[in-house]
Design brief:
single chain, alpha+beta, Thrombin, subunit H, 2 domains, six-stranded antiparallel barrel, 6 helices, 14% helix, 28% strand, binds 4-(aminomethyl)benzoic acid, signal
């Protein structure tokens, strides 16, 4: 089945139903071998810059209202995917979502303790974002209060060796672990590789699912499939050599050979925003 990136997110009730039916917590047997897709459990302290985007009003309280990922690049600045703030996802413009928050430093979404929840004071969605091609899929959130200084990750500037094809990278999130709507309660990570642009250009030449643009996007996963981001991971970090290189954005399905994950290229986000230094 071909699955567009925003489908599950656009139907929050599907997410809520899947959660109560499946309970794929880190203690469950299902979670042991399949995770983000093909991943493993991590503690939030190992990636303190990975945040959950949350609205309990919109997505229900079971998993603290988590619906997307994000990454702290400044104490009060979080990057996420533009499609996470689509009106189809949020039911209206982001400023109408009264309880839009980021949750930082919390591994298990079922626990009300650990880490902190910080209100989003302002949202800026890239005006060039195009939901048809998936171009420009990033947004900037400004927090009402700063996160601890050690919760911030540095961004890899253009030309950083962290972007090198073949390099190891890790993606983090609370997204679907199977591609069938199984949302874990605890944070996961998957080890992937930066793949040649040609693989994504071949996989996504420009049909209804999106167009791979090597300048602004980054191709990652495993050529043989198996490890990948999935629904609910969007906006979260792809990290290589300790620096942020990508934001989870889109793809067809999850973990399938021949359909790698597509990420926003962080160096291009920086260029667009006029951020010259990490
Ligand atoms: C999503 O909807 C999503 N396999 C993110 C990444 C991929 C697919 C879907 C890539 O958040």
């Amino acid at each position: 089945m071909r699955r567009r990136f925003a489908r599950a997110l656009a139907r929050p009730l599907v997410v809520a139903a899947a959660v109560s039916a499946l309970s794929v917590g880190s203690s469950g047997p299902v979670a042991a071998d399949r995770v983000v897709i093909g991943g493993f459990p991590v503690d939030a302290s190992e990636s303190p810059w990975t945040v959950a985007l949350s609205s309990r009003d919109r997505f229900g309280g079971t998993r603290a209202g988590q619906f997307c990922g994000g990454v702290a690049v400044g104490r009060s600045t979080v990057l996420t995917a533009a499609h996470c703030l689509d009106k189809e996802v949020l039911g209206g413009p982001p400023e109408r979502v009264r309880d839009l928050r980021v949750i930082s430093g919390r591994t298990d979404l079922l626990s009300d303790r650990g880490g902190q929840e910080v209100a989003v004071r302002d949202t800026w969605v890239n005006p060039a974002y195009d939901g048809a091609s998936n171009a420009g899929d990033f947004a900037v959130l400004t927090l009402a209060e700063p996160l601890p200084a050690d919760s911030v990750i540095g961004m890899a500037v253009g030309g950083d060796p962290a972007y090198a094809v073949g390099g190891a990278a890790t993606v983090y999130g609370w997204g679907d672990v199977s591609g069938a709507g199984e949302y874990p309660n605890s944070l996961r990570a998957a080890r992937v590789h930066v793949l040649p642009d040609a693989l994504c250009e071949e996989a996504y030449p420009g049909d209804a699912d999106g167009v791979y643009d090597a300048r602004s996007m980054l191709c990652a996963g495993e050529a043989t499939g198996g490890r990948d981001a999935c629904q609910g991971d969007s906006g979260g970090p792809l990290v290589a050599q300790g620096r942020l290189i990508g934001l989870v954005s889109w793809g067809i399905g999850c973990g399938r050979a021949g359909s790698p994950g597509v990420y926003m290229r962080v160096s291009d986000i920086m260029r667009t925003l006029g951020w010259t230094r990490a």
